[in-house]
Amino acid sequence: MCITTLGRDFGPIKLSNALKGAQAVKTGSDNHPRAADVIVAAIAARIASGELPDKHPLPAERDLMQEFGASRTVIREAISALSNRGLVESRPRYRPIVRKPDYETVLHATGDVVRHLLADSGGVRNLYRSRIFIERALVREAATAAQKPEIELLREALRLNELAIPDSNEFYRTDIQFHGVLYRMPKNPIFPAVHQGYTSWLAPHWEKMLRSPERNQVNYRAHKSIFDAIIDRDPEAADEALTNHLNAAWEYVRVTFELDE
Amino acid sequence: MCITTLGRDFGPIKLSNALKGAQAVKTGSDNHPRAADVIVAAIAARIASGELPDKHPLPAERDLMQEFGASRTVIREAISALSNRGLVESRPRYRPIVRKPDYETVLHATGDVVRHLLADSGGVRNLYRSRIFIERALVREAATAAQKPEIELLREALRLNELAIPDSNEFYRTDIQFHGVLYRMPKNPIFPAVHQGYTSWLAPHWEKMLRSPERNQVNYRAHKSIFDAIIDRDPEAADEALTNHLNAAWEYVRVTFELDE
DNA sequence: TCCCTCATTTTGGTATGACCAAACTTAGAA
DNA sequence: TTCTAAGTTTGGTCATACCAAAATGAGGGA
Questions:
Q1: Most exposed among A96, A204, B139, B225, judged by the fewest C-beta atoms under 10 Å?
Q2: How much is the pLDDT for B258?
Q3: By C-alpha distance, which of A109, A258, A127, A261 is closest to A202?
Q4: What's the gap between Cα B214 and its chain centre?
Q5: pLDDT (tens digit per residue) in B116-163
């Protein structure tokens, strides 16, 4: 049992200043001598080196505190930081899972902040405009340099999209897939990650939109004309088709949400 | 004074299961009934609403614990989370400063993870390739639709770049500025943020590279040909000039660091 | 023998309370 | 009035404790 005074610790104790400056040679960073940071760095290094393999659980907090000679408070703070940075994935009562970062992780970690940025309509608009910008470049590239296998992937995605016209949910899914093929064409893992970012960040707006086989039909035709322009090796036409398609979609969202511009 | 047993708390207590499920109606989220999350959300909301204005300090931890009726542990965890997400900026011993997120904040918050991704040469290459991809689209856009004021900005940046040829450090800076004008042209805050991401992430590689007035001269001429193509309204030429410029730069880095491909 | 159930042990989530040192505030000296 | 020193917050850290859910293991039924 523990018998203590109930008072808080607002009583200052004045025997300080004796051995000042001897505490933190740890971080090296000028302005961040936090103990947790060292641990974050150490664990991050282990993850990077593969010593803590992907998908494996982190050691127990109580083990870590022994290992690093730190209090549980600090360990938890470190784990929290790792989690927020996306290096580990921590569900509420489970062992945090190591997650070697990939570009999707980065996007995922930022998701929250981005959602904040989208609070005002201008944010959504900017994000969407950037998406148009990227995709225009993607279809141009596709029209210029797409190889047969990629074309076939796109054709297949288009076919599935057509089949899904009657089912709006399925159409939504295949729609994303179709655009996803575009993002995979440059064979650069960054682009699919960006695509996932776009779809997940814009999803709240898109999903609330009313859908219908008629709308789906319109969108499918847009996809088809993009595809046709690509196999025709006509970047200008592809660019224009894509631009029209996405602008029309934006217009639809704009009206639905009664945004300003 | 406090008289306690020295043993840790590994003694399990077995009178559980009685009032289970009565702890956390708070978060609403299925899998994250963490107390800290509620507080994070609450504070984040205040920041978004402007109740906690940008650049103002957060309330003291001890005040927050009263306000939310939570322990200091939880408050700290919440603040740590906010900090990692870039919503507040916390220097070691100072009051955390509220920081309304912008796109640069997002990039900044991810910086660490991205640096991890760049550990292997493939990461750098992918990032750089994505940069080429974006900038190609940017110069195309510029050549197609740039207005006079923007052209003048670009001209000025080019002029400063030329003046800086003898001074490699200055040249490096004006080089970045020149490209920066390109990123600002679409009038979308996302692009400058991306540009900053590129420059800061790639900086470790670029800065170590040996520079010389001769190299600067080459790069300046590349910038000039890009600029010329833009004022000629020739997207193809601009695209090609930019591609050559960045590929040459990559080649230079590749050789310097003896990367694989 | 194998699967399911239940008791036991770990382990994450949270709360207290305490102490230090650096930042902040303020009152008094120059 | 300005500078300085004392006093007061306040962030960083530690140690301890308890709860409840997850993980584990032992025993019983199919």
A1: A204
A2: 65
A3: A127
A4: 32
A5: 777 776 888 898 899 999 999 999 999 999 899 999 999 999 999 999
The pair of structure tokens assigned to B92 is: 């070691």
B235 or A55: which leads in pLDDT: B235
Range 124-183 of B in CB contact (< 8 A) with A: 126-127, 129-130, 133-134, 136-137, 140-141
Confirm if B96 and B81 have CB atoms less than 8 A apart: no
- Judge contact between B79 and B61, C-beta under 8 A: yes
Kindly report the average pLDDT of chain B as a whole number: 80
What is the predicted pLDDT for the residue at A186? 94
pLDDT band at residue A3 under the 50/70/90 scheme: very low
CA of B82 to C1' of C17 (A): 26
- Whether chain A has a CB inside 8 Å of the CB on B113: the answer is yes
**E-only strand ranges, chain A:** 88-89, 97-98
Instruction: Give the confidence band of A29 by pLDDT, cuts at 50, 70, 90.
Output: very low
Residue A225's closest CA among A157, A158, A172, A177?
A: A158
Cβ-contact B193, B217 below 8 angstroms: no
Any strand C atom closer than 7 Å to A1 CB: no
Dihedral over Cα of A125, B53, B193, B105: its sign? negative
**CA gap A125, A254 in Å, rounded:** 9
Report how far residue B66's alpha carbon sits from residue B206's, in angstroms, rounded to the nearest whole number: 50
Amino acid present at B259:
L
Contact (Cβ atoms closer than 8 angstroms) between residue A157 and residue A181: yes
For chain A, how many residues are written? 261
Q: Which residues of A92-117 are buried (b: 16+ CB within 10 A; e: fewer)?
A: eeeebebbbbbbbbbbbbbbbbbbbb
Question: Max alpha carbon distance in chain B (Å)?
Answer: 84
Is-contact B219 B211, C-beta < 8 A?
Answer: no
Identity at A126, one-letter amino acid code: N
CA–C1' B72–D5 (A): 32
Task: Identify the H or E element spanning B245.
Answer: helix B235-257
Split at pLDDT 50, 70, 90, the class of B19 is very low
**C-alpha span between B72 and B70 (Å, rounded):** 7
How far is the C-alpha of A114 from the C-alpha of B241, rounded, in Å?
A: 34
Per DSSP (E only), the strands in B54-188 are 88-89, 97-98
Please judge whether A101 and B117 are an interchain contact, meaning their C-beta atoms are less than 8 angstroms apart. yes
For residues A159 and A256, which has the higher predicted lDDT (pLDDT)? A159
Q: Residues A86, A106: contact at Cβ < 8 Å?
A: yes
Question: What would the two tokens of residue B42 be?
Answer: 């609450």
Site of tokens 């001890």: B62
**Phi, psi at A98, each rounded to 5°:** -65, 140
